[in-house]
């Protein structure tokens, strides 16, 4: 299974929330911008590590759902989301 990292650049995020409908792990954060909550998905019980700072959200996952994350990235009109595979 690929290990991959999902990054949301908060500077670029406009709070449009197109990402939420593509991948339910994306949620609205307290600041009105997108963040990632691995436990927010009602269907999958997925695990991941999330770091949420003022500049960006970085989440690492180890599952077969990279395509969903990529769809969220593609749907984002401001290209605020980057998905990339990382080495173990
Ligand atoms: S679609 Fe992009 S701009 Fe909109 S909330 Fe998600 S990350 Fe932010």
Walk me through the structure.
The strands form two sheets. A four-stranded antiparallel β-sheet has the order 4-5-1-6, covered by helices on one side. It is α+β, with helices and mostly antiparallel strands. The protein has one domain (4-85): Alpha-Beta Plaits, CATH 3.30.70. A hairpin with a 5-residue loop joins strand 2 (26-28) and strand 3. The chain contains two helices and six strands; from the N terminus they run E-H-E-E-E-E-H-E. Residues 8, 13-19, 34, 76, 78, 80-81 line the site of iron/sulfur cluster.
Give the terminus-to-terminus CA distance.
Answer: 11 Å
The CATH class is identified as: Alpha Beta
How many strands appear in the DSSP assignment? 6
Give the total of domains: 1
Q: Give, in order, the helices and strands.
A: EHEEEEHE
Classification by helices and strands: alpha+beta
Give the amount of beta strand, in percent: 25-35%
Shape label: globular
CA-based gyration radius: 12 Å
Biggest sheet: strands side by side, in what order?
4-5-1-6
What is the helix tally?
Answer: 2
Helix content: 10-25%
Which ligands occur here? iron/sulfur cluster
CATH topology: Alpha-Beta Plaits
Low-pLDDT stretches: none
The CATH architecture classification is: 2-Layer Sandwich
Overall average pLDDT: 95
Report the biggest beta sheet as strand number plus sense, adding barrel if it closes: 4 strands, antiparallel
